[in-house]
Amino acid sequence: MAVNLSEQIIPGTFEHTLENLIDNRLDLSIFDCKYKNDFTGAPAIKPRILLKIIIYCYSLGIISSRKIAKLCESHILVKALAEDTEPHYTTISDFISGMSDEIEIVFTEVLLVCDEMGLIKGKMFAVDGCKLPSNASKEYSGTKKELQEKYSKLKKLTKKILEKHKHNDKIGKKEFESDTRKLERLENKAQKILEFLSTHEDRKGTGGQIIQSNITDNESGKIKCSSGVIQGYNGIAVADSKNQVIIAANAYGTVAEGQYFGEMLDQTEKNMKLLKGQKMPLKGKVILADTAHFSEDNLQIAKKKEMQAVIPDNQFRNRDDDLKEGKRREGKEKFDSRYFEYEKKGNYFVCPNGKKLIFRGKTKLNRNEGYKYESKASDCTGCPYANRCFHTKKKVKKYRTLYIPISRYKENLCQKMRENIDTPKYKKLYSYRLKIIEPVFANITYCKGMRRFTLRTQRKVRIQWLLYCLVHNIGKCNVAEKRKMVITGKK
């Protein structure tokens, strides 16, 4: 039966919006230098075709290059978008992993279209991270010392199997094929670890501490999330409050997303300058983030850009529970540093019960340097304020410890934020965070089925994360187009 491919792309669908965007509204000349060759070789498949089929297949949750290539042969909508071409899976794979510079330009081009359609307000933003597993084995993670121990264990196992084989040879017993395959697997694993140990040094975290490396993808990290510990990357995104359009995005192999707060704000500012044409597009705007981003440095970065940052501290929910139970009105809220008086002459603090907390030197808490003060166990024994002073339910500690962070700035914004976040105004502002950023990650992972990264190294994973974000933003354009069709009465 004859099929007209052009009739398969129906107005109002995601694929129609995608085709219209890439064919008519985006400038893809950035790809010309790589895919235009008039002198030698066969003509390359047009980048716009590859981009259309990749984004459409990603929107279906299909991120394997082999499966995408198969759909170009069998799926009628993919054939229509591909203009009846059938690219090889290596062509698709090379195109995705090779567009590290181009993908950012395509991302900003789509943002310009979103702005033209009135989808971006630019008044309030929310930033958060989506933790996804990557194409890396958690089994091959560890410090150099741990990997060396793993290598020694593998060698012992191979030695035992070889001894077993020698014994079987003597008595004329044949080895099972499974034993031979197991020996080969163990030797391959041991060789991989040995090669890694000879070419790599210990990986270090932001605080200079040694963290676990990974043989499969050393730029990925062990990340704790709701489903347990994964070997993967943290896809960070900044979304606008009006329609949850993603303004800036990047991926990092670490769970500590707060350290990239400044970088994400710089990307947001750069893109908003392009969209709005203002010198300081973030001035007077609101940025919302969770407790992982709470630090003096991040608050100072937001202040420098003249933004209103709403980032609660780790204890704000405990204080909120106190308010719900009426403990604050009754004077039963938990004690924090505000309840301790500092005596400069002796360099000590006095607790609400009149006992001293003696200076114990400098220490590090959550990568921040600070001063440590401790009380005597005898002073805390039988204290009438013990329930309000110790934050842990299990009374393990028998003395109070007070950490005073060392600030490099004149103004202590952390303390101001602790006070502000308890006010109704800031609580209302922070309540918007969930409905701005969380639906973005739900759409990408649950609705679109993009639940893992299939590429390796941070550069390539960043490309894939931006493709995920493109699918989300183009979906917003599609919704706006359908809304327009309803208003104008077009079918």
Tell me the number of helical segments per DSSP (H or I, 4 or more residues long). Answer: 18
> Quick one: how many beta strands?
15
Query: Which bin fits the share of residues in helices?
Result: 40-55%
| Portion in beta strands | 15-25%
Looking at the structure, the CATH topology of the largest domain is: Nucleotidyltransferase, domain 5
The CATH architecture assignment of the largest domain turns out to be 2-Layer Sandwich
Low-confidence stretches: none
Any idea how many domains? 4
Radius of gyration: 29 Å
| Shape estimate | flat
Mean pLDDT: 87
CATH superfamily of the largest domain: Ribonuclease H-like superfamily/Ribonuclease H
The end-to-end span amounts to 27 Å
Q: Could you provide a short overview of the structure?
A:
This protein has 491 residues and is of the alpha+beta class. It has helices spanning 14-25, 32-35, 47-59, 65-74, 76-81, 89-97, 102-116, 144-171, 177-199, 261-276, 296-304, 316-324, 327-330, 377-380, 386-389, 413-420, 424-447, 458-488; strands at 124-133, 141-142, 203-204, 210-211, 213-214, 221-225, 228-240, 246-252, 286-288, 308-310, 341-343, 348-350, 356-365, 368-374, 401-405.
